[in-house]
Give the backbone structure.
Amino acid sequence: MITKHQLRVKRAFDIVLSVVLVPILLLPIIIFVCIATIDTRQFGMFFQTRIGQYGKPFQIFKIRTLKQEEHRLGHLDLSATAFGKFLRRFKLDELPQIFNVLFGQMSFVGPRPDVPGFADVLEGDDRIILKLKPGITGPATLKYKDEEHLLAKQVDPENYNRTIIWPDKVEINKKYIHNYSFYLDLNFILKSILK
């Protein structure tokens, strides 16, 4: 089980690594945001409410990849642009989350932050995953790296996510907490870079 000391070491590592990476990633992020602004005709930075540590909501930072398109029937639809698909394929739309880590809302490794209606309604022993800050990567993230494609194949994607993927993610993240080590975090970061 992860200890308070391990949580402090984990946070110290997050601060050091994010301080090192921000100057390196700042220019690419600015360029991507500018391109996304032109591409989607909206501000290229996207903000969305996610559930964080202890069930507290926070605003996650992402590069916008979806464009609003009006159809002949008058309704609006969201679809990924060609540039947006490129960003998503290589997870580059998540680069701004380096600031979520720096601000203490996220960690480099942990459970992925979900929209309200998932982590915040966990019960019993499952709520242990709220002890951690959500992560940019982690064991469940790596297992479901192709989650969008998997869901696209389902007849009822939302139901499949809630009944199959989400419970599995909870179990994976509980196992991560119970078997936590700093070296495990380093391993997940390395796997995420090399995948």
Remarks:
- Helices lie at 4-40, 82-89, 97-102, 139-143, 147-152, 157-178, 182-194.
- The chain has a mean pLDDT of 93.
- The first helix runs from residue 4 to 40.
- The longest strand covers residues 45-51.
